Structures are given as structure tokens and as C-alpha cells.
Amino acid sequence: xxxxxxxxxxxxxxxxxxxxxxxxxxxxxxxxxxxxxxxxxxxxxxxxxxxxxxxxxxxxxxxxxxxxxxxxxxxxxxxxxxxxxxxxxxxxxxxxxxxxxxxxxxxxxxxxxxxxxxxxxxxxxxxxxxxxxxxxxxxxxxxxxxxxxxxxxxxxxxxxxxxxxxxxxxxxxxxxxxxxxxxxxxxxxxxxxxxxxxxxxxxxxxxxxxxxxxxxxxxxxxxxxxxxxxxxxxxxxxxxxxxxxxxxxxxxxxxxxxxxxxxxxxxxxxxxxxxxxxxxxxxxxxxxxx
Length: 290
What we know:
By secondary structure, the chain is an alpha/beta fold. The protein has a single domain, classed as Purple Acid Phosphatase, chain A, domain 2 (4-Layer Sandwich), CATH 3.60.21. Helix content is about 35%, strand content about 15%. It has twelve helices and nine strands. The strands form three sheets. The protein has a five-stranded mixed β-sheet with strand order 3-4-5-6-7, with no helix packed on it. Strands 1-2 form a two-stranded parallel ribbon. A two-stranded antiparallel sheet has the order 8-9.
């Protein structure tokens, strides 16, 4: 029954063939002009082994995407980590999970940075690694012998984030790039982030793929955590249980390039910033027909 449900869900709602849309990246690369900055918000890998980019095929798929982006945009290109770079359990919960080797390979082999900032006038753009921040949710999917290593990485990452938010001045505006909104309630636990909340203009997320999931997530915010229906339901319900803490971050979902099978609502955003910070950023969505 579970297999039948998953098959129908993917065929009619989620994504019928996740490996048949590489041409959509080429459509993004063909966007005219030369932007001052380009941010890709994670999930460059097909994650075919569910253990992230330490698996050769997954690493190669991410490398191909990143090479194309860097060739097109050069030093203007920045990227965040997605959960598929690091690994996560398959939907049926029978394989995969986080791997420290994938965290290392994403940096050494693919050139991804777990944390970065970019200053544009009064704007500070901040890129973070959502899986590290939300590790309390992902911990059951890590190898037992690697849990302490993940905890140390998380502590270091949170300290970096707190330090940067503590430097924001009254007239600064922050744009936060965080792949998975599951991380946001854990960021909200940092006093430095709470103090800087008025200066967070937008938080750009990915992960949810489609406005369909985003709107339903808002409706389900505060639901109880469910621990008896497998790892995927446990992870999703824990995220939704604390989803009310997403509000202070002024979230904007940038969908996947494909969007959902049902709505075909994929695309990307461009933004125009006023370096003086007087006028708010103007975001424009560019749909990708398929």
C-alpha cells in the first residue's frame, strides 16, 4: 500500500520523472544580462544513493550543475548547501542518511561553502547550511559514530551565524539564504537573530519545491509531531510542528526549476536591490514552462 501511494503521489502530484528536466537549468543560464550576484539555494545533486555527494554518481551530477553555473556567472555565483548534498533517508526510510564524508566532499570536491556573507551597500546577504542548523531533526538519520562530529559542526556554524547577526546595524537589511525552513525555528533560538529580526528583509528558501507544499505547510503549522509512521513523516511533522516560528523570517519560497507535477509551477527569482537600503528589494518571479 505504501509503495502504491508513493507511486501515485509522484506520478500525479510531486514529480513524475525527476531525471528528465536538465534542460531547465539551461533555460536559466540563457537569461539575458549579467547579474551582479547569483545565488543557487542548494540541492544540486540527484542524490541517487541517498547519502549525498560522497556517492560518485551524486557528486558527478552536482559537479555538472555547478560547473555550468560557474561558467555562466563566474565570481558572481554563490551557492548554499541543500539537504541532498549531505544525504537523507529515502521516502520509504530503508536506505540512506547523512554522511560526514558528503559534507567534506561538498567542500573539497565541489567548492561549496557552509557559511558565507556578501555585502552590497546596506544589504548583507547570508548563506547558511540548513541541515546543520536543523540537525536535531536529522540526527536519527546520521550514523551513530558520526553524531558527535555533526554536533561539533553545528555548534561552530551557529556561532558563526550569531556573530554575523550581532554585527548588523540599525539601517542594515539582511537577506538570508537557507535551503530548508526546518532550520528557521532553531535559528530563532539564537538571541542575536531575535535581536536582528527587524533587519531581516527576506529569507529565501528552497526544499519545498512548489507553492502547493508551501501553502499547505502554513495551514499545518503547529501540528503534532508524528513518530510512528517512518522517518520521512517524522522529519516533516517535526518541521511543521514548529513552523509558526518561520514568520519572523519573512519567508519567500523559490521553487525548484520543475515545480510540482500537478501545478508545473517551477521557476526562479530575480531581485533588484537598492544599496542604500531606503527602498526594499523588488523580487520578480520567472516561470519555466515545461
